[in-house]
Amino acid sequence: MKEKLEALRQEAIAQLNDVADVQTLNDLRVKYLGKKGALTEILRGMGALSAEERPLIGQVANDVRGAIEGLIESKQQAFQKAETEQRLQAEKVDVTLPGRKMTQGGTHPLNKVIQEIEEIFIGMGYHIAEGPEVETDYYNFEALNLPKNHPARDMQDTFYITEELLMRTQTSPVQIRTMESMQGKVPVKIICPGKVYRRDDDDATHSYQFYQIEGLVIGENIRMSDLKGTLLQFVREMFGPNTQIRLRPSFFPFTEPSAEVDVTCARCGGSGCRVCKHTGWLEILGCGMVHPEVLRKGGYDPEVHSGFAFGMGPDRIAMLKYGIDDIRHFYGGDVAFLKQFARM
Fold it and tell me: How many CB atoms lie under 10 A from the CB of residue 198?
């Protein structure tokens, strides 16, 4: 048996030295050291040996196994090293090549305008308030002096989820929620930026989803002149120091009196052009003094407190500011369009 083991060692070493790939190496491992391999077959005959011979043959068998396993491991390491070297050569990077220019993004024009509006009003002492986009009928309509079946509800074609839940049609519900949270305390000075939803057809000036920014001030002895001064300060910071405003009487259920606000055309300075349809004026927002019933719903006594509110569309302001003629450009994801504003 000793001679068989020595012959097996020589045969295995000779074949392992000629191995050229990993698959062949694995096949030889199974051939010589597997459960049904050559070494196992020889060792099955140890039962016929005497008690004195078994330890000697066992030692020889261990030496043979060790020699074969050592050579297999050495070959395996050599193959792994060669494979690593090959991968390094194939995947190497020339560090002397110039770097690739990273594409730098920019802020979306709508976000730019919203941030600018926020900064202007924060500079005037306002706070940012937020509220849910899925609203209740109470906060979106009833608390704003629009009870059920009120004809003015037709002014806003609404996405209803249930009879009492809807996608908010304006950010005005945030005003009511803020008034309730203040529990009658003054002053209140907030703006409420956010998305709103209406069942409009998409065209150059309308979208079923757009942005709105509401403003609310409540205190004692708040007058229409305070509203006008606030809006004049805002438009001059947004459009330039020579911008003028005019207020035209209008109607909103939640303000009384109410007004539409026009600004002098930023393109022609008020002299008249195609953008302003040769009037010299452009409409940008609606406003008014908070209706007494809305004050009561918010927890304020209209005999003691008064306030004003305004609402504007950042989409429209961005269109005026940047000379954009189609609101759909903001939501189309056209990179060529958005790149124009990357460094503004």
Answer: 18
137: domain CATH number?
A: 3.30.930.10
Calpha distance 196→87 (Å, rounded): 55
Q: Alpha-carbon distance 70 to 181, whole Å?
A: 79
Task: Specify the 3-state DSSP secondary structure of 198.
Answer: coil
Residue 328's domain comprises: 109-339
| 142 DSSP assignment | G
Binding-site positions for Mg(2+) read 256
Please name the residue that has the structure tokens 């770097």.
Answer: 99
If one counts every other C-beta atom within 10 angstroms of the C-beta of residue 157, the result is: 12
Asked if the structure places residue 99 within a domain, the reply is: no
CA nearest to 170, candidates 286, 78, 64:
286
Q: Answer yes or no: do 84 and 129 share one domain.
A: no
**Per-residue pLDDT in tens (0 to 9) along the chain, 344 residues:** 667 777 777 887 788 788 888 888 788 778 777 777 777 676 666 667 677 776 777 777 778 778 888 888 888 888 888 888 888 888 877 778 887 888 777 888 899 999 999 999 999 999 999 999 999 999 999 999 988 887 777 767 889 999 899 999 999 999 999 999 999 999 999 999 999 998 877 776 678 888 999 999 999 999 999 999 999 999 999 988 989 999 999 999 999 999 999 999 877 777 888 777 888 898 899 999 999 999 999 999 999 999 999 999 998 888 888 888 888 888 888 888 888 887 66
Total domains in the chain come to 2
Residue 38 CB contacts under 8 Å (≥ 6 apart), including other chains: 8, 12, 31, 32
